[in-house]
Amino acid sequence: AYNYLMRLRFMRQITTIMDEEKIPDNYINPHNLSALDQIMLKEIFKMIEKLQQNLSVEFTGQV
């Protein structure tokens, strides 16, 4: 998941430098992603949410 997010970020920065001639940033507009990338991003966020919930239970005992 981390590598996938970093690839999206890196590609965005390259595009910004090459095509838009602007200072690169980390903003990724989900509407500009392919359908597959959008699905992958949603799945990654679900994984992150589950990890956060598990950590919350582990460290606070609360759901």
Write a concise keyword list for the protein shown above.
63 residues; mainly alpha; 2 helices
What percent of residues adopt helix (DSSP H or I)?
A: over 70%
Q: What share of the residues does DSSP label as strand, in percent? A: under 5%
Average pLDDT score: 92
Could you say which overall geometry the principal axes of the C-alpha atoms support?
A: elongated
Number of helices: 2
Number of self-contained structural domains: 1
- Uncertain segments: none
Name the structural class: mainly alpha
Radius of gyration: 15 Å
Describe the main β-sheet briefly: none
Total beta-strand segments: 0
Instruction: State the order of secondary-structure elements, H for helix, E for strand.
Output: HH
Distance between the termini: 24 Å
Characterization of this structure:
The chain has 63 residues and is mainly α. It has one domain. It is built from two helices and no strands. The longest helix is centred in the last third of the chain and has 26 residues, at 35-60. The two termini are 24 Å apart. The mean pLDDT is 92.
List the helices and strands and how they pair.
Elements: H1 2-20, H2 35-60
